[in-house]
From TrEMBL:
PANTHER family: FRUCTOSE-1-PHOSPHATE PHOSPHATASE, GLYCEROL-1-PHOSPHATE PHOSPHOHYDROLASE 1-RELATED. Keywords: Hydrolase, Metal-binding. Pfam families: Hydrolase. This is HAD-superfamily hydrolase, subfamily IA, variant 3. InterPro entries: HAD-like_sf (IPR036412), HAD-like_SPP (IPR051806), HAD-SF_hydro_IA (IPR006439), HAD_sf (IPR023214), PGP-like_dom2 (IPR023198). Signal peptide: none annotated. It comes from Edwardsiella ictaluri (strain 93-146). The keyword Metal-binding applies. The keyword DNA-binding does not apply.
Length: 218
């Protein structure tokens, strides 16, 4: 059994908390087809990295701000039409956090994140770090460092729950402990995390006067 005390918990949105599969694929596939780009190169990253990082790294000729904004607006239009679903057991798990400092760190722009949260039935997070708030997204540690600084905490005292390798690398580079949920990726691709689990029921929370004790059960 794995058990550890933390001052705050930060959560990945797409993949870990919300099931958004099928939302982004049509937008990215159409965009790639129109520009004669191999969509297969883009697909593994569309739920784990910001639009900006994907374009800069894989299609630099199309990475200007205007192109990024067009893609983000197209993705926003899709989530307004198709609701993201809260993962099984996630709502009850979030309720167990009590007064613990927590937040969502996402590759989505703030309007898209707000739309997904509002329509998923998820409680409103006290903190949402979106694409516009950082200059570099996953796998850069900036989003998670910003989340820790919001609460004035040492990143080493923070836990991250992620669902993708880019997010795991970002959190670890920030100095945080990472639990990976294998709800979207195969377990072997997440072994770089400190702990890998299959679902929210495996994480038991014990709120304390200061911080929270997190216990992982098999």
């Amino acid at each position: 059994m794995w058990r550890k005390h933390f001052a705050a918990i930060f959560l990945d949105m797409d993949g870990a908390l919300l099931d958004s599969n099928g939302h982004a694929e049509p937008v990215w596939e159409q965009w790639a087809h129109q520009r004669q780009i191999d969509y297969a190169l883009l697909r593994p990253r569309i739920y784990s990295q910001r639009v900006q990082e994907i374009l800069r790294q894989l299609t630099p000729r199309y990475s200007d701000d205007a192109e990024c904004q067009r893609l983000e607006q197209a993705l926003l239009a899709v989530v307004r039409q198709r609701r993201s679903r809260l993962r099984q057991d996630a709502a009850a798990w979030l309720a167990m956090l009590g007064e613990t400092p927590w937040g969502v760190v996402t590759q989505a722009g703030q309007p898209r994140a707000a739309e997904q949260i509002a329509h998923s039935g998820m409680c409103q997070p006290p903190l949402v770090i979106g694409a516009e708030q950082v200059s570099c997204g996953r796998p850069d540690p900036e989003p998670y460092l910003l989340a820790a600084s919001h609460y004035g905490l040492d990143p080493r005292d923070c836990l991250v729950i992620e669902s993708d390798e880019a997010g795991i690398r970002a959190a670890q580079a920030a100095g945080m402990t990472v639990i990976a949920l294998s709800c979207r990726r195969p377990r072997h691709s997440l072994q770089c995390a400190d702990v890998v689990i299959g679902g929210w029921r495996s994480i038991i929370l014990h709120p304390q006067p200061e911080g929270i004790v997190v216990e992982v059960i098999a």
